[in-house]
Amino acid sequence: MNAQNKIYTEHLRSTALGRKRYIGIDGGGTKTSCVIGDEFGHVLASCEGESSNVKSKPWDEVQQVLRSLIEKVLKLSESTADQLEGVFLGLAGSDREEEKAPVIRFVRSLLPEKTAVTVHNDAVTALAAGTWGEAGIVLISGTGSIACGFVPETGKYVRVGGWGYLLGDEGSGFDIGRQALVAVMRGFDGRGDETALTSMVLEHFGVADPNKLITCVYGKPNVRAAIADVSKLVFTAAKQGDGIALQIVTEAAAQLAELVSTAKNAMYPPGAAAAPAALPLVLSGGVLSDEWFTSRLQAAQALRAGGFELRPLKIAPVIGCYIMALKQAGADITGQVKEQLSKKLN
């Protein structure tokens, strides 16, 4: 059965069970994913667009991305806006009220008044995708980095990091890539040691010498994404034993581990209820999809001492947005719903 037939079959089944629709939108620094489904966990359609990070893209471009995705996913699922009960957006750079408010106003302007619209940062929805709402911490390292924790018994939510590429994002793809480019330029100047990263970076960007990198890198349409992509070269060089790359990787692992341990301490401060013996730690983002790097992260002292249960995210973060859309509408995340969602977009 091809993809279109699968979508159509799910549509027929969903129509027989109920007409309510829920949209989840997950927006990171590189791309934005969107799904639509019903209250029974049947995912009807999905699509992707460009980044919707309100901190790194002009507001009119963010609006265009969100409008396009909503219109497209409705069309793909043969749904109407009148069927929408809820939309939940997990967007990078949208953690504070002043960042959420314009997004909520804009999305509401596209939909019927009855449709509930909620915005959180993308870490909240990745956590929901990894724990189904149970206590735990999510560590995201993609273009940016952040750790968020949730204690359902008390409703306590904490976040550590996620301050953007100018003020933080330690251990992120951007941070790793930027340090690699700095090392290449220091070596070119004669201020730093030679590194295999030089030849790898030059080949990656298609230039003959480091002197041409400044024009090439700064001229990229999405500079943050272009620099974050260099992190893959760092992992390759580190696996081959390059000293500079290994140093960058080791520091990145330590910084990410620090985010996690700080989040746990805030969730379970002295005098409060004790943390679970093996607190789930959900790993999400392109950097943490590299198993070699994840093993180095697990070996970091802050994680070894913390008693965490590492859970690589097996369900796409956008499914966490859909889960949160269901939960905000009062729908139960039953075993049947979990089974349905586990089959989709993982």
UniProtKB/TrEMBL annotation:
Domain ATPase BadF/BadG/BcrA/BcrD type per the UniProt entry, residue ranges: 23-297
Keywords, alphabetical: Kinase, Transferase
GO molecular function: kinase activity
Matching Gene3D superfamilies: 3.30.420.40
Pfam families per record: BcrAD_BadFG
SUPFAM superfamilies per record: Actin-like ATPase domain
PANTHER family, alphabetized: N-ACETYL-D-GLUCOSAMINE KINASE (PTHR43190)
Name assigned to this protein: N-acetylglucosamine kinase
